[in-house]
Amino acid sequence: MLDEHKHNVLNIIKWFFLATGVGCVIGVLDAAFLKALDASIAFRNKIPLFYLCLPFALYVVAVLSRKVAKKDKDFTTDAVLHKINAYDSISLISVLKGFFLSIVTMATGGSAGKEAPCADTGAGVSALMAKLLRMKPADRRKMMICGVSAGFAGVFGVPISGALFGLEVLWVGHIFYEVMFPALVAGITAFQVTSYLGVDYIYHPLHFVPVFSEQFFLKMIVAGMFFGLVALLFIEVMKFMRVVFRYIALRTRPFWACFAGGLVLLAVGHFISPLYLGLGMAGIDGPLSGQPAASPFGFLYKMIATAVTFAAGGIGGVVTPIFFVGAQAGAMLADFMNVDPATLAALGLVAVLAGAANTPLAASIMAIELFGPAIAPYATVACVISFLVTGQQSIYPSQRISWDSGKALEEQPPADPAKFGRRATDRQTRIRARKTLFKKAVKEMTRHLIPNSKGFDEKK
Predict the structure, then answer these.
(1) How far apart, in whole angstroms, are the C-alpha atoms of residue 401 and residue 131?
(2) 286-309 confidence digits (pLDDT tens)
(3) Number of helices (H) and strands (E), helices first, in the chain?
(4) Does residue 403 or residue 372 have the better pLDDT?
(5) ∠ Cα 34 81 424 (to 5°)
């Protein structure tokens, strides 16, 4: 018994130092990325009609990411989740692609987020550190999870929820408790390092003391359902745009798919507003400060711009656009529900994330870190309801799901559940899409329009 306790203590000390090292390295890289991104955006803003180069910029990004070093394409959060769940590592070239090409995408006006390059860089660099230390695959996986947690914590300034996001997003229904301590240490360390290096974060403490009543609580339930539907719509729009632009690429050439996507974004920026292009932090800060929604359809414009950007070859994250969509949708809903717009914008920001990424716990804690403790009970209710509304859908297709996660599944548990992972209730497979008429229509369209296709990047 004493030997077991001694081993546990030594293991805690070991992972404390390893996670601290990961947090320091990823914190410096987070700060470097964010500083470079801010400088590129500041330079871009001095150029009138900067988005005119988008049709060509997207093609350059697509060629560099998909044609150069074709095997090194783990530069998206979904690819990183797949690698971590498969106990595999990430190449240094993939890290470099995600780091630099995402800056090009956002600086030229592509609608993408800043979190994926940081989280993906964190996973890749952590895998490299584990390789240098000659760690076993299980320990290397822990290091990669710490890297993802440090990346999210450092980029948004949310040390606790950022660390939990890296744990919760891997497997719906499971939190890997054995990695929780090093992930928290890595997240807190990365946050401290990026703060010390002068990185500014979103922080909008809400100055309201809501009086609890049955009516207000029912409004929060309705709001949670609405945000869940918004998250579901975001997922479906992303899938639909991938089908459309894959068809264009395979029927013509990849250049014309990128060019068409650039023209759509150019039209959004010129005829609607440049607010929906690029990183879009102004579209998040405005509603959180109590300003009305930029447009009743602002969240739809951002959805379309983001989906087109990724379908046409852009690189970056989706969490920042999710924040934009949620904040704008909340500000729009506030007019109908007669609720403080800043409150609903804050709820929308975290609830749409909870539904789209299947991370209700991390999103609930993020609400406290960003907006203060007063919003905690309402954010938790909205996040959980949004998570339930999205069903089996996820913005990350490589995310895994458990039978006891609360997500309704169409099949019965396997006869021999011992084959399926950590617990008897696990199902080690990807999330299956809901059998809706819309999905069936898209599948039929894809089957007829793109016969025997294997993807955009295999087009010669």
Answers:
(1) 29
(2) 888 888 887 889 899 999 999 999
(3) 17, 3
(4) 372
(5) 145
